[in-house]
């Protein structure tokens, strides 16, 4: 089955926005499908990128590890997102590590295919828009990480994680790591969010009731 039929939602992905349907179909159909049944690193910080990945199903966590060995959560890419394109074009090493969730499907676009697509002005503009959105996101994340209280940082990360699904399956240890605090502090802050009616906890699963309300004041 052709990729454009198997993953029809990708015809509306950001990197193909505004391009003619024939180009979109050809682009998707020439990509190689890669399925990951378990969490897998598809790009590793400091290593080269062999091409671009287009997320078809599932999600991908983007993380950065500093010289001190501490890992920072940067983003959770959702279906339709592209990954690794800037490194593939520039021949620079990956700026971060990208790890799939279990049962994730991606389309691999090789460097030759990517450079062929770059002959289209609309494709270049779409890529520039994506880079701009990442810059806005990174600026916001840096600001809240530097100036936000622990509660704000936790809400910010839950807000990002809830973009893919309102049901978040992450341990308190994981959240403590990405927020930069103790597990006990995360537990106290989650209790405050429960009392405010923003979330519910079912074991290690966090259910977000209202993502917009959770993010109020965070993006300003």
Describe, in short, the structure shown.
The chain has helices at about 5, 20-30, 85-90, 110-115, 120-145, 150-160, 170-180, 185-195, 210-215; strands spanning about 30-35, 40-45, 50-55, 60-65, 70-75, 80-85, 95-100, 105-110, 165-170, 200, 205-210.
Q: Tags for this entry?
A:
220 residues; alpha+beta; Jelly Rolls; Arc Repressor Mutant, subunit A; four-stranded antiparallel sheet; 9 helices; 41% helix; globular
Model description:
The chain has 220 residues and is α+β, with helices and mostly antiparallel strands. The chain folds into two domains: 3-120, Jelly Rolls; 148-214, Winged helix-like DNA-binding domain superfamily/Winged helix DNA-binding domain (Arc Repressor Mutant, subunit A). It contains nine helices and eleven strands. It has helices at residues 3-6, 21-29, 85-90, 111-117, 121-147, 150-161, 172-179, 183-195, 211-214; strands spanning 32-36, 41-43, 51-57, 60-65, 71-77, 82-83, 97-100, 104-110, 167-169, 199-202, 205-208. It has a four-stranded antiparallel sheet. 27% of the residues are buried. The model has no long low-confidence stretch (mean pLDDT 90).
């Amino acid at each position: 089955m052709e990729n454009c039929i198997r993953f029809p939602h990708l015809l509306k992905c950001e990197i193909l926005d505004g391009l003619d349907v024939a180009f979109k179909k050809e682009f998707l159909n020439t990509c190689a499908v890669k399925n990951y049944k378990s969490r897998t690193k598809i790009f590793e910080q400091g290593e080269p990128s062999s091409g671009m990945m287009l997320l078809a199903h599932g999600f991908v966590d983007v993380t950065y590890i500093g010289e001190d060995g501490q890992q920072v959560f940067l983003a959770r890419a959702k279906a339709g997102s592209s990954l690794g394109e800037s490194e593939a074009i520039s021949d620079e090493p990956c700026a971060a590590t990208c790890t799939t969730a279990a049962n994730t499907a991606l389309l691999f676009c090789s460097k030759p295919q990517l450079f062929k697509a770059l002959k289209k002005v609309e494709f270049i503009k779409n890529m520039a828009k994506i880079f701009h959105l990442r810059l806005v996101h990174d600026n916001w994340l840096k600001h809240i990480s530097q100036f936000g209280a622990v509660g704000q940082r936790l809400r910010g990360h839950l807000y990002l994680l809830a973009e893919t699904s309102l049901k978040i399956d992450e341990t308190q240890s994981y959240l403590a790591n990405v927020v930069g605090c103790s597990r006990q502090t995360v537990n106290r802050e989650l209790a405050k969010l429960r009392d405010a009616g923003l979330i519910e906890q079912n074991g290690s699963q966090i259910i977000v009731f209202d993502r917009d309300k959770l993010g109020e004041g965070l993006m300003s």
